[in-house]
Design brief:
Structural class: mainly beta
Helix content: under 10%
Number of helices: 1
Strand content: over 45%
Order of helices and strands: EEEEEEEEH
Mean pLDDT: 77
Number of domains: 1
Distance between the termini: 38 Å
């Protein structure tokens, strides 16, 4: 859901909060030397941008997660709560001699996870992810990331973990929010004429 009104007392032309989000997820982790872990997760959050120097915008995403975990030890589900804050930006690569690079960019991001109420597994986490992206003329984006994760409490026998994850992301970068589309459709309709 997009937020449409700017905050007048801050003298910002665009709305401070770009969008609100809610979601759910299911995560199953299979371990080799310890019991597996099942997690059901709910999350709510909002996104906002901070314009900075040299046309770089820092995209911020704050969210809170409610986590329900079962590590199959006959103790049932445990609950936990944590805050997440992600800061990211895209650095555009432009070269006047090679036109292919006009559509290349470098997505960069960092995210921190802080517990409000500790869960059984996968607690405080720090994540860094540089990547390489390409945007087609019709706004589709292809991104390849190398993600570094540092986390605590992986299993009952391991206190921390350093992981490298390769992630491919494909999405429609020109996709407008539902609220934007419905407002445009509403404004484009002609008023009904009385006969």
């Amino acid at each position: 859901m997009a937020h449409q009104k700017p905050l007048s007392f801050l003298n910002i032309k665009k709305p401070l909060v770009k969008s609100f989000h809610a979601g759910a997820g299911v995560i199953y982790t299979q371990n080799y030397n310890a019991k597996d872990n099942f997690e059901f997760r709910l999350s709510q959050g909002f996104k906002f941008d901070i314009p900075t120097i040299n046309q770089i915008t820092l995209n911020n995403y704050f969210r809170i997660e409610e986590r329900f975990q079962n590590s199959f030890t006959n103790s049932g589900f445990t609950s936990g709560f944590r805050l997440r804050h992600r800061v990211s930006t895209d650095l555009k690569l432009k070269n006047n001699f090679i036109h292919f690079t006009d559509h290349l960019y470098i997505p960069l991001g960092a995210e921190i996870f802080v517990n409000l109420k500790k869960s059984d597994r996968f607690n405080d986490l720090v994540r860094f992810y540089p990547g390489l992206g390409y945007q087609t003329k019709n706004q589709w984006k292809f991104e390849l990331y190398l993600i570094y994760n540092r986390t605590k409490n992986i299993t009952e026998t391991s206190n921390s973990s350093n992981d490298f994850i390769l992630r491919l992301r494909v999405y429609d970068g020109g996709n407008k929010t539902f609220l934007d589309k419905s407002n445009k459709e509403k404004n484009s309709k002609e008023p009904l004429k009385d006969d």
